[in-house]
């Protein structure tokens, strides 16, 4: 069997030590990310995933928002660790904000032809999110870039929406950082197969 996809999946890891030593043009990266999201599957081809790509000062502004927001929420003695973590995200080359357009979810929920499934569209939109995030992540790793993904929503939603003029119907689902790999990930551990898989022949 061909194993190209499997090999790429094995290469995909969470990289926390990211840098700005990226040789790709920003316009090229943006086109590449758009194409991956465009071709990501979604239920009924509903296409609920939205992506906002942040370079340069816009990337830094995202993590400034996160830092300011968490400083108001985290105890002072714990905030030093939080601040250091956020600083490492700011050290990355760029960020991608992944959103779900809730108007799309509502349209499908209200569609009489889909009445049998009306309570499932949000779940399906989450599947589309997972597909898109995994595909972008793997694609960036294929090109030698490191990636990590964070979830500071909903704490930062309002401030981020204001700063980047996000439509009201877009719900923030994840914040992805990418950049040069300054330190590789540790070895990955896996649970026992018998606890995870079943085979009937």
UniProtKB/TrEMBL annotation:
InterPro entries from the xrefs? Frm2/Hbn1, Nitroreductase, Nitroreductase-like
Pfam families with a match to the protein in the record:
Nitroreductase
**Superkingdom of origin:** Bacteria
The name on file for this protein is Nitroreductase family protein
Residue ranges annotated for the Nitroreductase domain, each copy included: 10-179
Native source species: Fructilactobacillus myrtifloralis
């Amino acid at each position: 069997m061909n194993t190209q996809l499997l090999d790429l999946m094995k290469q995909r890891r969470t990289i926390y030590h990211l840098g700005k030593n990226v040789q790709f043009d920003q316009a090229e990266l943006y086109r590449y990310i758009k194409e991956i999201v465009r071709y990501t599957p979604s239920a009924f081809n509903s296409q609920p995933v939205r992506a906002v790509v942040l370079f340069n000062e816009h990337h830094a502004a995202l993590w400034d928002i996160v830092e300011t927001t968490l400083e108001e929420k985290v105890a002072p003695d714990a905030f030093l660790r939080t601040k250091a973590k956020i600083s490492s995200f700011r050290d990355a080359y760029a960020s991608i904000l992944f959103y779900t357009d809730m108007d799309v979810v509502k349209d499908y929920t209200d569609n009489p032809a889909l009445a049998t499934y009306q309570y499932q569209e949000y779940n399906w939109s989450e599947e589309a999110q997972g597909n898109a995030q995994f595909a972008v992540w793997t694609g960036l790793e294929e090109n030698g870039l490191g990636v990590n993904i964070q979830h500071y929503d909903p704490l930062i939603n309002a401030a981020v929406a204001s700063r980047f003029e996000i439509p009201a119907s877009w719900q923030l689902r994840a914040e992805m950082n990418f950049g040069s790999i300054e330190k590789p990930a540790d070895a990955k551990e896996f649970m026992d197969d018998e606890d995870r898989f079943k085979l009937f022949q």
